[in-house]
Amino acid sequence: MKSLDTLPEEKHDKVLSLAMERRLVVANERKEDNEKRSEKRRKKMLEDHSKKMALLQKAQEERQKLSHLHVITSSEELSRCIEEIENETCSSSKKKTKQYALLREQINIRNELLDLDIRIVFSQARRKCPLEEIERELAEFIEFTTASVVYEVTNNGHLLVGKCISHKFEVDTAEEKWYDGVIIYYDCETKLFEIMYDEEEEHCSFDLTEDAMMGDLLIH
Hints:
Blueprint lengths: L11 H56 L7 H12 L5 H22 L9 E2 L2 E2 L2 H25 L8 E7 L5 E12 L4 E6 L5 E4 L2 H6 L2 E3 L1
Antiparallel strand pairs: 1-2, 3-4, 3-7, 4-5, 5-6
InterPro entries: SPIN/Ssty_sf
């Protein structure tokens, strides 16, 4: 490649002009390439955000749907609900379908709405697990959860400060509803827990022992 100094002086301007034009072309190509990459990244981010929002919306809809369902809080109640379906006047296969649906519903409520980690499978090796086995596992989980909450409330109240909870109440229409909140204070003398509920400005104080024993309290 020849140096500019080796060229005749009358060609200097032409060479410099060509060099500038080439430099502008390269700069424009680089700019266009960067713009294309930026636009591609922007579209990808928008797509990812759209997918994320769709998943969040779906999860919210599922939680909303589950929030209107009744949460079974004892093994006795679970057994009674299964028996009520068994006593319905319909075919055996339809009864089984309803009973499986009830168990799946209760597991989904705990996993999706109450943020518990319950892992009960309905099929293994492409074969449906026996209804009695699933019912037993769910009943054991319910009883274990209740017993654990009762123990923590009655023995380790001070350690629950800062813990997130789900607390069941009966609203004005006698409908049961779960409220999420966080324990912000525990009084060792009165055994009262001060709770700040989500979307509520005022704090409330409760003795949670009875609620824990009834299965109306869950600690996350």
